[in-house]
């Protein structure tokens, strides 16, 4: 509920600070006294657009601050979502600077206007004769029916399921589209895959083959060099082995004479062992090397296949070709396994759809049970408000589509006159009738759901007599469940409030300013008497005012 409102330098208001109570509060005042200014200030602090015309004094900033008691509104999640500090007593402040810039704060944390706008819908409902368009909106009509049907948890569950369903359906469509695209490429990808599969390239095969090809292309030179090396090593007269053998014998004879000669002998003996090993390897290599045209052809063909496939796939190495082989395997396998994947995803969609259908049916059943009660209450209240022949035709039709709040389509028709045809509210109801219908709906909602503070802005225009008493009674009933503030010009309604505020203008230092004050009991009698008879208050008007207040 709105607990406190303070205004500085706004429109005709220099400075104003006022507390509000729960229950029914009344605001009265002469035409032009500034009642609309109060609503403008409240709208401004809750996110409405502002400009320099909002400032009374263009050299000072405008500050509007509203304190709300949020205890009963369960807004902790909203505050967490928007990274705001939650307080049961939350203060919202709006500042408009002389430069035209504005700032907004919630519990001293800066916020953007869109956050304020979202918060506004949870805190204050300003209702006037001109704000009845939502009566023709099917979502609003459904919200009324669902309030009576106690469908809030079911609808919330349905909406969670619908989000999941839409996500899964989107994933399914993506899989199906991907399969269609992949199917078009499947044959070609399969050909490329099989080509690489049959090639069966091994790790480092390219380097090994290129080295082998180098040997095969130079086999004669290699054979000659190996023979020459073998001759140099093993010749009986001048071969390295024979000379090294002689050197070893010579050093062996003196190796016992000193450590130095012994080390020399050991080193030569080690060299001889290594040379003997080299000679044996030279002999093996020389015997194994030979020109083989068939092997050369096989190696050439293998390398040419490798080079050809690398060129085809626009890569420069065998490693990259192996990666492409793996990618093709995934694409081909993906298409071949796609049906199974799609079937699995389709089953997930079907499972969620089944649960959605079950919840939607529960919602629909509860709506059908609530509709007769809604019709009865609406028609009774409208009869009390001077519309005895008002009738509603409310019907729910099942839909095949998953809508935002269930699987129902709503036909919500109205007739104001006896024997009249039913039609859409916006087409057959006048402005005054729409205002009374909205008042009746808000009264029903107040008893069945938690509504924010509601401000009735002269919805009693054009109403008098017994109907005004009924409007006042309805507002009193609503105020048992929520904070109600009514701006009115009717004494019958003004007398029913638990608190009564008066908006008035006064001249200060040659300038006109608007102000608001809470009336005492005596002041309230005078105010209502003035509403009854005008400025010249008669004794009978005072008596009547006291009777109304009693």
TrEMBL record:
Q: Does the keyword Coiled coil apply?
A: yes
Q: Where is the RecF/RecN/SMC N-terminal domain?
A: 2-508
- Which Pfam families does its entry note? SMC_N
Stored CDD domains = ABC_RecN (cd03241)
Keywords associated with the record: ATP-binding, Coiled coil, DNA damage, DNA repair, Nucleotide-binding
Q: Does the keyword DNA repair apply?
A: yes
Q: Which domain of life is it from?
A: Bacteria
Q: Which InterPro entries match?
A: DNA_recomb/repair_RecN (IPR004604), P-loop_NTPase (IPR027417), RecF/RecN/SMC_N (IPR003395)
Q: Which residues form a coiled coil?
A: 158-219, 247-281
> Member of which family?
Belongs to the RecN family.
Kindly give the NCBIfam families that the UniProt entry links to this protein. recN
What function is annotated for this protein? May be involved in recombinational repair of damaged DNA.
Q: What is the name listed in the Swiss-Prot or TrEMBL entry for this protein? A: DNA repair protein RecN
- What is this organism's lineage? Bacteria, Pseudomonadati, Bacteroidota, Flavobacteriia, Flavobacteriales
């Amino acid at each position: 509920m709105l607990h406190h409102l303070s205004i500085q330098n706004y429109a005709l208001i220099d400075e104003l600070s006022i507390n509000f109570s729960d229950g029914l509060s009344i605001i009265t005042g002469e035409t032009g006294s500034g009642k609309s200014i109060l609503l403008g200030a409240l709208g401004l602090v809750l996110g409405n657009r502002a400009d320099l015309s909002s400032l009374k004094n263009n050299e000072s900033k405008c500050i509007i601050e509203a304190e709300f008691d949020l205890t009963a509104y369960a807004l902790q999640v909203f505050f967490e979502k928007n990274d705001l500090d939650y307080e049961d007593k939350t203060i919202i402040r709006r500042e408009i600077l002389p430069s035209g810039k504005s700032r907004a704060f919630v519990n001293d944390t800066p916020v953007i206007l869109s956050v304020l706008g979202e918060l506004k819908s949870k805190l204050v409902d300003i209702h006037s004769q001109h704000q009845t368009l939502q009566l023709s909106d099917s979502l609003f009509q459904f919200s009324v029916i669902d309030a009576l049907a106690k469908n809030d948890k079911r609808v919330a569950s349905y909406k969670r399921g619908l989000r999941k369903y839409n996500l899964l359906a989107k994933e399914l469509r993506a899989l199906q589209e991907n399969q269609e695209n992949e199917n078009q490429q499947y044959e070609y990808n399969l050909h490329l895959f099989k080509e690489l599969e049959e090639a069966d390239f091994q790790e480092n095969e390219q380097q090994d083959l290129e080295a082998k090809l180098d040997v095969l292309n130079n086999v004669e030179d290699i054979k000659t060099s190996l023979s020459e090396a073998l001759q140099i090593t093993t010749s009986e007269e001048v071969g390295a082995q024979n000379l090294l053998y002689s050197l070893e014998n010579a050093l062996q004879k003196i190796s016992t004479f000193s450590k130095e000669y012994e080390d020399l002998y050991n080193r030569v003996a080690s060299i001889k062992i290594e040379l003997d090993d080299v000679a044996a390897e030279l002999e093996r290599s020389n015997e194994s090397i030979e020109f083989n045209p068939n092997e050369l052809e096989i190696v050439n063909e293998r390398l040419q296949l490798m080079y050809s496939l690398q060129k085809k796939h626009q890569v420069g190495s065998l490693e990259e070709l192996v990666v492409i082989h793996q990618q093709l395997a995934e694409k081909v396998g993906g298409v071949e396994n796609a049906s199974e994947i799609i079937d699995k995803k389709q089953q997930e969609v079907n499972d969620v759809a089944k649960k959605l259908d079950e919840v939607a049916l529960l919602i629909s059943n509860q709506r059908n049970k609530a509709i007769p009660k809604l019709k009865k209450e609406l028609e009774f209240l409208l009869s009390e408000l001077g519309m005895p022949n008002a009738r509603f035709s409310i019907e729910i039709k099942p839909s095949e589509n998953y809508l935002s709040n269930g699987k129902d389509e709503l036909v919500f028709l109205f007739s104001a006159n006896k024997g009249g045809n039913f039609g859409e509210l916006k087409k057959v109801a006048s402005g005054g009738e729409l205002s009374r219908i909205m008042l009746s709906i808000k009264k029903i909602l107040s008893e069945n759901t938690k509504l924010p503070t509601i401000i009735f802005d002269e919805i009693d225009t054009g109403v008098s007599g017994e109907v005004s008493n009924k409007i006042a009674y309805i507002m009193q009933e609503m105020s048992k469940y929520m904070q109600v503030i009514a701006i009115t010009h009717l004494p019958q309604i003004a007398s029913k409030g638990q608190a009564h505020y008066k908006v008035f203008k006064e001249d200060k230092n040659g300038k006109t300013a608007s102000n608001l004050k809470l009336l005492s009991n005596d002041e309230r009698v005078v105010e209502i008497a003035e509403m009854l008879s005008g400025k010249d208050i008669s004794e009978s008007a005072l008596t009547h005012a006291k009777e109304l207040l009693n």
